[in-house]
Amino acid sequence: MTPTSDLHSKLAPQVRALPTGPGVYLFRNAKGDVIYVGKAANLRSRVRSYFGSPRSLEGKTRVLASRIAELEHIVTNTEQEALHLEATLCKRHQPLFNVRLKDDKHYPFLKVDVTEAWPRVYITRRVERDGARYFGPYANARSVRTTLDLVKKLFPWRSCTKQITGTDPRPCLDYYINRCIAPCTSYCTPEEYREVVDNVILFLDGRTDIVLRDLRRQMHAAAEGLDFERAAQIRDQLKAVERVTEEQVTAQVERADIDVFGIAQDGDDAVVQVFFVRGQKMTGRDDFVLAGTKDETPADVLGSFLKQFYESASLIPRLILVPHEIAEHELIQQWLSTTRGSHVEVRVPERGEKRRLVEMAGANAGESLQMHRVKWMADAGKTTAALSELEDALNLSAPPGRIECYDISNIQGSDSVASMVVFLDGQPAPREYRRFKIRTVEGPNDFASMAEVLRRRFTRLAKERQAQRDREPATPEQREIPHEFRIEDVSPNAEGVPVEDNGWEETAQAAEDAAVAVRSKEGWEALPDLVIVDGGKGQLSAAHDQLRNLGVDDVPLAGLAKREEELFVVDSRDPIRLDRRSQGLYLVQRIRDEAHRFAITYHRTLRGKRSLSSPLDTVGGIGPKKKKALLRKFGSLKGVRAASVEEIAATPGLTPKLAKAVQAAL
Questions:
Q1: Burial bucket for residue 392 (CB in 10 Å: 0-12, 13-18, 19+)
Q2: pLDDT band at 247 (very low <50, low <70, confident <90, very high)
Q3: Helix residue spans in 273-351 (DSSP H)
């Protein structure tokens, strides 16, 4: 009995005793760390599924099941309560096997407390049901302060916190620079001040057309009353609002509060982008880096994200737009509606402006994911740590300065290609990338294709090594250095330089210099410190056999299996499992993903060229002009095929001999 099955047998009575109602379950590993949090409508049935046959489980779930050492559960009254508790526990414990939202943000809002006699506008991070008006959320403190400063410049509301009695002897500086209408000295009536506050609310709500109309009315009224100074002030305010309105980013949708989500996912990483649309104005946007998304669909990732995102959100809008039908759609929608206190719709838009917003959010998420990786690569500390981890894990003699990774790409054996990408000191080196069109392999045979690629890559190095061996003395006796001339037996002088100069130390230094020179070369002449092939034991075996046949099997070699992200090395049956949060694994994944991207791009290019090619291209003597003349005369390739030799020969530029060749080719 394996340790895992023995451990599971100890947990079996606890699993059988679980209730059949809704609740949350937590799995811990042997160290006591929470590695997964889940919820279920039926706890016993759901938890029991992890303890069945390993073959019935998917890759990520199988690994999770193998690490379960302890089980806990919490019973809830409803499945909605379980969903809310699951999101809370995921944020608290950040379990390794859950989709994890790393950023626990409380967004800032602008608050206008209309229940006060003399309302102010200020920043808050708590939204309460107190009758006040809240505007936001804003992505960060800078954006909300910029908006607050703008509103203060456009509308003369009071920013002081003093109690307003109207009996102050004189107003403050804000009055003299037209930033306040001084209710503290009774220079304005409550109605006039309320008019200012109403315009602030309308402006923040995106209804600037009403604000502009009201300002024009006030300006004309002041002019008709011969209050030209006030009319001039309102005119300047009107122009400022018009200028700001032109610069604001708007969404051409009906007036509503909408959160728009987009997602980009690649391997174990995902980024979610959110746009906050309030009224018809985009008040802000933000992106979130997620971890633990391997083997999860975008819909599942987005569902897990929404639960954690709205678990502590200050405001939930009426409409949430997503690019995919999320997991547990109805349950999440009911939970959000209950939390908000009114109906919330989670919708996948299919057309129109809402669909455009979702696509724009997805494009921004893709850019953020790429930028996240670029930032990681640019962090010298992280790349150094990653290379050191690979050195230790793969038992290398030094951190791998030059890493080459190979990947095969084909569709059922057609247009089979391969890629070689190179990372120098943890950074991609696009100039060193190479691509291969598979020449000798028929059909989808990744093992033989990998062997061909490595043979073509390392043949030149193998020939150089053979030439070097041919230049060396043939017998071990000729190569052996006499004992009396060995460098350790030579006494150094005061400067540490050997007294006898027998040439041996120069030979050793020359060999070392030659090795450094080989590793510092570029292209085919460079010797890698580590070769990674995309695949498991099969690809690794094929690669090792080829390198051994060429006589370069001293190059460190590893295979990266996609499913479990395990590294396989020669002469070891057990895989090397790097910590899923380690910098080393992250670097290896980035290298593998880059090799895959480069191979796929080349494969698509070849496939595209083949789809645009014509049998006429294979006929000698038929160039673009004659091909165009044939297609123009007969309408299509089918028309050319149906034509007689005489009809083809009658085409301008063609001869009877060429016509026969064309008919034979078709």
A1: exposed
A2: very low
A3: 298-311, 329-340
Alpha carbon distance 599, 579 (integer Å): 27
Q: Give the separation between CA 331 and CA 316, rounded to whole angstroms.
A: 16
pLDDT tens digits, residue range 160-196? Answer: 888 888 888 888 888 888 788 888 988 888 888 988 8
Q: Which element (helix H / strand E) includes 431? A: none
Task: Check if the beta carbon of residue 602 is closer than 8 Å to that of residue 417.
Answer: yes
pLDDT at 59 (0 to 100): 65
Domain 382-443+518-607 and domain 615-665, same fold? Reply is: no
The alpha-helical segments, DSSP class H, found in 531-623 are 537-550, 583-612
Run of H or E including 641: helix 637-642
Average the pLDDT over each of 510-519, 589-598, 627-636 and give the range with the smallest value: 510-519
Of the two residues 274 and 496, the one the predictor is more confident about is: 274
**Cα distance between residue 71 and residue 34, in whole Å:** 9
Which pLDDT score is estimated for 104?
54
Residue with tokens 């099941």: 65
Q: Answer for the pair 335, 360: CB distance below 8 angstroms, yes or no.
A: no
Three-state SS across 509-524?
HHHHHHHHHHHHCCHH
Segment (H or E) for 353? helix 352-378
Please tell us whether the domain made up of 256-376 is placed in CATH 1.20.1280.260: no
Percent of the chain with pLDDT over 90: 3
Bin 101: left if φ > 0, else alpha if -120 < ψ < 50, else beta: beta
DSSP string for residues in 288-304 = EEEE--TT--HHHHHHH
Look at 264-268, 546-550, 589-593 and tell me which has the smallest mean pLDDT: 264-268
Give tens-digit pLDDT for 465-478: 777 777 765 555 55
Q: Is 611 exposed, middle or buried (0-12, 13-18, 19+ CB in 10 A)?
A: exposed
CATH no. for 615-665: 1.10.150.20
CA distances from 590 to 376, 386, 421, 436, 584 (A): 10, 11, 11, 21, 10
The per-residue pLDDT for 15 is 84
The CATH fold assigned to 382-443+518-607 is Nucleotidyltransferase; domain 5 (3.30.420)
Q: What is the residue type of 295?
A: D
The residue type at 101: L
Q: 163, 183 in Cβ contact below 8 A?
A: no
DSSP string of 15-72, one letter each residue: HHTS-SS-EEEEEE-TTS-EEEEEEESSHHHHHHGGGS-GGGS-HHHHHHHHT--EEE
CA distances from 427 to 207, 519, 580, 586, 600 (A): 50, 16, 21, 13, 21
Q: Cα–Cα distance between 183 and 158 in angstroms, integer?
A: 8
How confident is residue 404, by pLDDT bands cut at 50, 70 and 90?
A: very high
Beta strand extents in 606-658 (DSSP E only): none
Domain ranges across the chain: 3-97, 256-376, 382-443+518-607, 615-665
Burial 196-228 (b: 16+ CB within 10 A, else e): bbbbbbbbbbbbbeebbebbeebbeebeeeeee
CATH topology (fold) of 3-97: GIY-YIG endonuclease (3.40.1440)
Residue 494: exposed, middle, or buried by beta-carbon count in 10 A (0-12, 13-18, 19+)? exposed
